[in-house]
Design brief:
Elements lengths: L1 H16 L1 H40 L4 E4 L7 H7 L7 H8 L5 E16 L2 E11 L13 E2 L4 H5 L4 E4 L1 H8 L8 E4 L2 E8 L14 E5 H8 L5 E7 L5 H15 L11 E4 H44 L1 H9 L4 H37 L8 H27 L3 H6 L2
Parallel strand pairs: 3-8, 5-7
Antiparallel strand pairs: 1-9, 1-10, 2-3, 2-6, 2-9, 4-7, 5-8, 6-7
Length: about 400
């Protein structure tokens, strides 16, 4: 322990004694580590944002049934063209089948005009839902209440507003029990949904929820819809999906050898597809930025070789006084590692600052994870060891008589 402290003090003294050279030496590390940390922070921010958006849409223990699954190839797209639309009959078939399926909700969406007095909002997301929607945690009411299942069944003219829709329509007024017009039809506001974080600067609270029967009257009797389903317990998710598949195949009269003409997927499925699509891109990006770290390591090696050349007489004198090869090896190596780590620490702070600044000036989010701090500093320590070994071995191999004889 004492030896490590002594080596650190000697390295810091040497670095401080040549402040300008040391600054120029670690500049490459500062830029490279700063770039890597900034990129990693932005990537993590994007990943967290996308994951949060997907989970908020699907729920952690729910799955979706849609007209098509996740289309990966041209053949998948072509095969899915003839799939029939998801209908209320599909949702009813799922509700009446199996023992693992809990809530089953059909939902449809279109953009429409929402109006209160002289305030008109264009292209607001209007969603129609069936009675089981209240069983899904993605639907909440910060003020007022949710639309009741009875109101859904009886096609009452009631609506639940998204937070931003309420703010834009009513400003400082209390929206509860006020009448709005959706596509020119009167609806009474019964609740306002909780505010949710925006995704890449885009609001997720610009919507109106109404009963499915009313939605069909506004936008047609055969709306494009999907079905959300939850198992009775999270542990039954896979069995519930199997039951939904069987129920839909029976409802659609599919023969045993015929492929499914619908798609089932969970938030994990979508997240997996996103990660698969972006992992290669992110790896290439990190690799390109990492090349600058390699350049920084080469600079440190060249500077340390110059240091060894300048201090040849000092090294020879230390050897003549009894210093061992490993003592000199550790001395030069400690200085190389200290230089590299110092650049890593400054670069890490610089990278976080750049990521946070970019996040504040753009819709791209940034996330600072503790492991990225460890990554930035440990990378530079490895670079310092790797590129410091050669200069350190050169110093340790010097002949003391030849070293003392040099001018």
């Amino acid at each position: 322990m004492r030896r490590a402290v002594d080596l650190t003090q000697i390295a810091l003294h040497a670095i401080w004694g040549n402040k300008l050279r040391s600054t120029l030496t670690i500049l490459g590390n500062i830029v490279s580590v700063g770039s890597i940390i900034a990129v990693v922070s932005l990537i993590q921010g994007v990943n967290d944002e996308v994951s949060g958006a997907i989970v908020s849409q699907f729920g952690s223990d729910s799955f979706m049934v849609s007209r098509t699954g996740l289309l990966m190839t041209e053949e998948d797209i072509e095969a899915a063209r003839g799939n029939p639309r998801i209908s209320l009959d599909d949702a009813e078939a799922m509700q009446g089948y199996g023992s693992n399926l809990g809530a089953v909700m059909a939902q449809a969406g279109r953009n429409g005009e929402v109006k209160y007095r002289d305030q008109v909002l264009e292209n607001v997301g209007v969603r129609g839902v069936t009675r089981d929607y209240v069983e899904f945690p993605t639907f909440t009411a910060e003020r007022g209440r949710l639309i009741s299942p009875t109101e859904v069944d009886r096609k009452r003219g009631v609506a639940l507003l998204g937070y931003d829709t309420s703010e834009r329509l009513f400003a400082n007024l209390d929206p509860i029990d006020r009448t709005i017009k959706i596509q020119g039809v009167n609806f009474r506001v019964v609740g306002v949904s909780e505010q949710t974080p925006s995704t890449f600067g885009q609001s997720q609270d610009e919507f109106v929820i109404i009963p499915m029967g009313n939605f069909s009257k506004l936008f047609g009797s055969r709306p494009s819809m999907n079905v959300m389903a939850r198992p009775k317990t999270p542990e039954q998710l896979d069995r519930a999906m199997d039951e939904a598949t069987v129920a839909l195949r029976i409802e659609r009269r599919l023969r045993p050898k015929e492929d499914d003409n619908f798609g089932l997927f969970t938030s994990d499925t979508v997240l997996g597809l996103y990660e698969q699509a972006t992992t290669g891109i992110f790896a290439v990006l990190i690799g390109i930025v990492g090349l600058s770290l390699l350049v920084g390591g080469i600079v440190i090696m060249n500077i340390m070789l110059m240091v060894v050349s300048e201090r040849t007489r000092e090294i020879g004198l230390r050897k003549a006084l009894g210093a061992r090869r490993r003592d000199l090896l550790w001395q030069i190596l400690a200085e190389s590692v200290m230089l590299s780590v110092l650049g890593g620490v400054i670069g890490t702070a610089f990278g976080f600052g750049v990521a946070i600044a970019l996040s504040s000036l753009s819709p791209v989010p940034a996330a600072v994870h503790p492991w990225s701090v460890v990554l930035g500093i440990s990378m530079t320590a490895v670079v310092g060891v790797f590129f410091g070994l050669y200069p350190a071995s050169r110093a340790a191999a010097l002949d003391p008589i030849s070293a003392l004889g040099r001018n």
